[in-house]
Give the backbone structure.
Amino acid sequence: SQQGEEDPQALSIQEGENATMNCSYKTSINNLQWYRQNSGRGLVHLILIRSNEREKHSGRLRVTLDTSKKSSSLLITASRAADTASYFCATPSSGGSYIPTFGRGTSLIVHP
Amino acid sequence: DAGVIQSPRHEVTEMGQEVTLRCKPISGHDYLFWYRQTMMRGLELLIYFNNNVPIDDSGMPEDRFSAKMPNASFSTLKIQPSEPRDSAVYFCASTLGAGAGELFFGEGSRLTVL
């Protein structure tokens, strides 16, 4: 069953600006992942944050997790045109199978 | 490693025809997933295998869809007969171990049913 939903659905910014995407989910999780999908390509894993972590960094990416609010955010700092893609959060499905289920994604456009 | 390999990348067929999509997972991975992506429904899990055994096929839309994994290095998703509403991008992904860890996706098979 689908758990996570991203917000906003679409985001358009200028190069150099920061981009923030949010993910809300419904039930308790042990981890949350963020993926990126370039147009016409498969999804690529960006970062995994565990339920006992509040923040994680990877290069220009910063992910936060608030388990009390059942939400996560992905921040891309100093965005580049090459960051244009769709971004998805994935959470383990409810029911104990722990299979990643995906939201509909945020479509990010970074204008040069 | 070459990553997850899917074929064909693009398939255009007519309603009623049989469609077979193929996937080669990353060597050593013991979980294989088939997802379908559409604008309307996003990314949906169709079925997944563990050690070549189908574990959960509750996402398969109907009996027209079937999936097999005859060995650790090959899986197929078959649609027979195909319908226009099956038009979507079908992704195969693999991973090692349970626990909702990182999935490795193929580039997808874009299916268009006329």
